[in-house]
Each structure stands twice: as C-alpha cells, then as structure tokens.
Amino acid sequence: MQGVIERRRSYLKLMRKLTLRKGSFTVDDLAQSAGIPRSTARDWIVRLSDEGCLTVLTQPHGRAPSRYAAVSAIPRTACRRIFTAVDGDMVEIVHECLSSACAAFCARHHAKANPDIRIIRQGTILREFVRMGRYESTVGLWPESAVAVTGIWQEGDEIVQRIRSVGGPAFSLTGMMGRAEGVINVDTVRHEQATEGCIRTQALVHIIIGIDNTDRFEEGATFALAIALLDYLSELSGTFPIGHHIAMLWQDLPEKTAGNSCSAIELAVVPEKADLIRKAAVRFIGDESVSDGWGIAIKTGFLIPDSLHQYGLRARTSLISCQEARQCARECGIYTYGGGGIIGSLAAIGLAHEPEDLIITPDF
Predict the structure, then answer these.
(1) Spatial CA neighbour of 244 closest among 215, 209, 277
(2) If 0-12 CB within 10 Å is exposed, 13-18 middle and 19+ buried, where does residue 349 land?
(3) pTM for the complete prediction?
(4) Which of 143, 158, 197, 218 has a CA that sits 20 to 30 A from residue 206's CA?
(5) CB 318 within 8 A of CB 253
(6) If you ran DSSP here, which 8-state letter would residue 61 be given?
(7) Are 352 and 266 in contact (CB under 8 A)?
(8) How confident is the model at residue 1 (pLDDT cuts 50, 70, 90)?
(9) Per residue in 59-84, pLDDT tens?
(10) Beta carbons within 10 angstroms of residue 49's beta carbon
(11) Residue 194's pLDDT is what?
(12) What are φ and ψ of residue 128, in 5° steps?
C-alpha cells in the first residue's frame, strides 16, 4: 500500500495534469481519474488547498461544483541537491538536477563563461571545481552565456557562490535553487540586464574511498560492495553521496579474480563526521568482503596529486607491489588498511576523475 507521502505526490501530480488539460478540475474529476472514492478525493483536495498547493477558482453555485486548479504545473524545483566541499583554496560545487539535459545546459554555459572552471558531468550530477575568487563574466542571449559563476569564497563554515544569469537560469536562481537539499539560503538581486544571486552552502569535506580484492573467483563483486558501501554511508547524517567509479586494472595479473577491476566512491561530509566515515567504511568492508586480501584506501580532499594519478595509470599496465602502494599512500597522505587489495584501492582513487570511457576498459 502506498504511504501518505507517495499518495500525496501521486494525487498532486494528477491534479497538475488535470489543470494543464482542462484548466481546472472538480472533486468528481479527481475521483474518476484516480479511481478513488469521492470522499477521499475531497479530503485530499482540502488538505492540499490548506498547504497552498491548490487554489479555489469558483465556489459551488447551484448544481455547479467547486472548481480547483493546481497553483503551478511546473515542478517546485528542478534542483535536487546543491552542496560544496573545500580542498585548500579550491571549491567543488556539486549540483544534482532532475534532468540530465538541464545539467548539460549549465555545464556548457558555465564552461563558456569561465574556461578555468573544471567540469565533470555524470548524468544528472554536475560537478565544478573552482578556485576561490571573484570573476567577471558577461551573461546574455546567445552567443553570450546564459549563466555564469562570478565568484566563490568562504565565510566561516559556509561557502558563498555568486551566480549571474538571464532567462531560464535566472528563474532557477530565484525560484528553485533555494529549495534544493544542502542550500542554506539564496539572496538575489534583479538588475536591468541580468539577475544575480548568492547561494550559501556548508563547507564540507570531500572523501574518496577506494576498495579492491573484496571478491573471490567464484563469489562476490567489488563493484557491488562499493555501491553497498555508498548506500550505507549515505544513511549517516551529514553525508552527501556523489558517485561510484569502476576502473579496470592490469589484465595480465596472474592472481586476478575475473575482470580485475577496482572501485571508488565519493561523498562529501560535515567536517566533524570525517573520522566516523573512515571507521564505518573499514568496518563495513571488513564485515562484508568475501576475500581475506581485501584492501581499502581513504583520501580526504578532491585534488588528485600527480604522483597518485601516475600510480593509477601504471596499475593499468604493470605489476605494482604492496610496498610501492604503501609508499605512494604515505607520500600523498592517504589512509590505507588491509591486504593486497590496497594496491587497487589506491589506484581507484588515482583514477577517480579520469573519463569513464577510458578507465572502464583495459584498452587505451
């Protein structure tokens, strides 16, 4: 049976469709469309009217019933989550959208406005890596960018992101971004040529966790355990999951299981939870791994040192010893735990920001 939240969502969606199709609807319209008793339809209309989701267009008159309309057929926000992590003077902005097309639009226009922004888009998730500072960018109709990040800085434990926009992005800035999970506040000012706003989010800590050698030839799968770990950690308060990566390693490794792939997950956490995340991840992998040779590597911060990146690339073409892996981890300030799996775990972190079409195949 549907829960209250699910029923609310489905009935409101139906009311919006009726509003779009007919301009308004009655209790009978909703009851017939939803296949529910008239009394149930009336109760939900009253409830959603009290919440401000519906408006009464006409009161009952004679035999004519009351007519209602959804306040808006447009989603309240296309922005699911907006959060930020800090690594030195660099900020990672993570924006998860309802639509991959919207994420692609913002990626294109942000990059056009400021070529120094590094952008990674993974489906509906847009990740931007920006150095703190203030930037001058012109926005407008094409061929100008419609939206631009014009500044980003830290105030206490908050990150302030300044955005200038026109058209649809301006509507998103004024009406949608403030409702996204992770946003503390949005202040906007309408200028003659554009709308500008400051988005406040908490300054989080970025964590990358690599795991490998958690399976045996006949059972288990490292990628599946990595997904389970991300789901598990996401349930802890103060965590914001980002994504999962798979990287193929050296295929001629004599002791490999099947495909010889490693996995990494990324998440952002409130600073005081970083140590808890590390302990929880080690305990989870230790409990769930079917191999005694499992290994885990945990990095704080999203910047990948060149030596770590090169290590990851080498792991795709040659044999690397545990001693080499531990030495690289020490030099890069990365925590490792476990057996031979630390080799692939560390490589997974080094390759985490490589293009997916490169690292999911052993061919270069």
Answers:
(1) 209
(2) buried
(3) 0.78
(4) 197
(5) no
(6) B
(7) yes
(8) very low
(9) 888 888 999 988 765 556 788 899 99
(10) 15
(11) 87
(12) -125, 135
- DSSP type of residue 301: S
Mean pLDDT taken over the chain: 89
Give yes or no for a contact between 169 and 132, defined as CB atoms under 8 angstroms apart.
no
DSSP assigned state of 66: P
Distances (CA, A) of 34 to 19, 42, 60, 297: 14, 12, 22, 51
Peptide bond into 169 cis (omega under 30): no
pLDDT, one tens digit per residue, over 302-331 is: 999 999 999 999 999 888 899 999 999 999
Residue matched to tokens 């409830």:
47
Output the CA–CA distances (angstroms, integers) from residue 359 to 228, 248, 250, 262, in the order listed. Answer: 21, 6, 11, 10
Average pLDDT on 107-115 reads: 92
> Do 289 and 220 meet the contact criterion of CB atoms below 8 Å apart?
yes
Assigned token pair, 341 = 């799996």
Question: Of 180, 192, 184, 195, whose CA–CA distance to 150 is shortest?
Answer: 195
For range 286-295, the mean pLDDT: 90
Residue type, 243: G
**Euclidean distance between CA atoms 308 and 332, whole angstroms:** 7
**Parallel, antiparallel, or unpaired for β 158-165 and 335-338?**
unpaired
Ordered DSSP codes for 84-134: EEEETTEEEEEEEES-HHHHHHHHHHHHHH-TTSEEEEETTEEEEEEESEE
Give the lowest-confidence range in 25-34, 64-73, 76-85, 101-110: 64-73
**Residue 39, C-beta contacts closer than 8 angstroms, at least 6 positions apart:** none
